[in-house]
Amino acid sequence: MPEIGRTATGAVRNGAYTLGRMCRSIKTLYNVEPAANEDEARAASLQFVRKISGYRKPSKANEAAFERAVDEIAEIAWRLLGELETNAPPRERVASPA
């Protein structure tokens, strides 16, 4: 049975591999005030694709696939944000340090 736990940094350890913490630059976009916009959903999608692909900027050969993934994930993220429901009041956004 694989050992499941957390590393000292808080990453999830599942015996065979370690899942890192969520990328710091991806912020919660749901139920916040002021409300998130499509540009923020796209920016989060770009960070996600960069994280899972390992590319900050893809090669010319991978550029189309990279951009298509960002577009599709942004569309799905924006749809998700529009379909989620809550009775909780919106959280105030915390300003990022300069």
Distance between the termini: 45 Å
Measured by DSSP, the beta-strand proportion falls in 5-15%
Instruction: List the strand order in the largest sheet.
Output: 1-2-3
- Secondary structure category: alpha+beta
Architecture blueprint of SSEs:
Elements lengths: L3 E3 L5 E3 L3 E2 L12 E2 L4 H16 L6 H24 L7 E2 L6
Parallel strand pairs: 4-5
Antiparallel strand pairs: 1-2, 2-3
Helix pairs in contact: 1-2
Q: How would you describe the overall organization of this protein?
A:
With 98 residues, the chain is of the alpha+beta class. It has one domain (23-92). It has helices spanning 38-53, 60-83; strands spanning 4-6, 12-14, 18-19, 32-33, 91-92. The mean pLDDT is 84.
